[in-house]
Design a protein that fits this description.
Length: 382
């Protein structure tokens, strides 16, 4: 499972330093770039909305194999796209494969948490962040020295190899039989009736808007507004992901000791402070440090919210996870084009300042994540 999270993060992180090249290579505006990134989010949300049903029919291991192997090719296809129409198709497919892979791997992690009655989600996401750090840190340097196509080809080969090997060792959960009860429990378009899962999804939405903004726009912010080169600009997301990785590897212990709600509250206010400083930073190095501090806070927010979504009363982990991840990734669907439009007429600095306010809202709502606690009497029956 760790290798799957690592590969997903590596592909996502490797995309970040490709963005400035993507902008100049296709000779497009920031707003058009935002629309193309919007298609990445649209692909992700489309796949995520189907994943709960696919996992219930085929199991998370099979779904991971489908989406993971296709996803490993996505960055190379985007890098090869010669014009905007083909780039749009490539972005939709890339986003769909990454998004479907995301739901399946997180649903599998929730199953493991239930069996162990303790948190492992943060450590799993730690491998995702480690992959993001490697992809972002090495990407800018590789592109600057060897070109964007060579970089995409190497990323594709490494990700494909990791995923192909890792899926053989994943635990396959029991697949439900297709009797009447199974069909009733897994209708394609049935929405959960418990409103709490949607509130948790809203917190994931606000958190992932902020995380996605760093992924999609931090490198461009440093390059165009703070005057640094591509190699240094790529360090913004690398620092963000690197600190997230470290914090996520210790996050399960922190969460098990202090509780999910307290951990979420402290994390949200730290992330808000980091995002605020990044938006006000007068120099690229201060901005990079601020994005790293923001990663320190955001690190355990998404894992806690995913655990809370996957442990809601009256629904399977796959159903709850599908709702929360779909809502969360809707931030990646809506935010890029909106940020691109605002940046066309303003600058990125005020945008990052505004995003810090969204993280304050998550701080105020943190008590709703109590289902991520692992009290003995809350352990789900098998």
């Amino acid at each position: 499972m760790a290798a799957i999270f690592l590969a997903n993060g590596f592909l996502t992180g490797a995309w970040a330093p490709q963005i400035p090249v993507f902008l100049t290579r296709l000779d497009i505006s920031k707003f058009t770039l935002g629309l193309l990134i919007l298609l990445f989010g649209a692909g992700a949300v489309t796949a995520m909305s189907w994943c709960g049903h696919l996992i219930s029919r085929h199991g998370s291991r099979t779904v991971l194999r489908w989406f993971g192997l296709v996803g490993s090719l996505g960055l190379l296809v985007v890098a090869l796209a010669p014009n905007v129409p083909l780039a749009a198709i490539a972005m939709f497919i890339f986003g769909g494969s990454i998004g479907g892979m995301d739901v399946a791997m997180n649903a599998n992690a929730v199953t493991v948490e239930r069996r162990l009655s303790r948190a492992i989600m943060s450590s799993s996401h730690g491998f995702w962040s480690l992959g993001g750090f490697a992809g972002g840190a090495l990407g800018g340097i590789a592109i600057q020295n060897y070109g964007h196509l060579a970089h995409a080809a190497v990323v594709t080969a490494l990700a494909f190899a990791m995923i192909a090997v890792a899926v053989r060792y994943l635990i396959a959960e029991d697949r439900p039989r297709h009797g009447s009860s199974a069909v009733a429990g897994h209708r394609k378009f049935a929405l959960p009736g418990n409103p709490m899962v949607y509130l948790v999804g809203l917190m994931a939405l606000l958190t992932m808007i902020s995380e996605g903004a760093v992924l999609d726009w931090a490198a461009l912010y440093l390059q165009q507004e703070l005057g640094t080169d591509l190699a240094i600009a790529g360090l913004a997301y690398a620092a963000f992901s690197g600190v997230m990785a470290v914090m996520r590897f210790v996050g399960d212990g922190v969460r098990n000791r202090f509780g999910a709600v307290t951990t979420l509250r402290v994390s949200a206010i730290v992330a808000a402070a980091g995002m605020l400083v990044a938006g006000l930073a007068p120099s690229p190095w201060l901005a990079i440090a601020a994005f790293a501090f923001c990663g320190f806070g955001i690190a355990n927010m998404v894992p806690i919210l995913f655990s809370a979504g996957g442990n809601q009363e009256g629904m399977s982990s796959g159903t709850g996870m599908s709702v929360v991840t779909t809502m969360g990734y809707s931030g990646i669907l809506v935010a890029p084009s909106a940020i691109g439009f605002v940046a066309e007429h303003s600058s990125f600095g005020p945008i990052f300042v505004a995003l810090s306010g969204l993280l304050v809202i998550v701080f105020l709502m943190a008590g709703l994540a109590h289902r991520a606690e692992f009290a003995p009497d809350a352990a789900p029956a098998e």
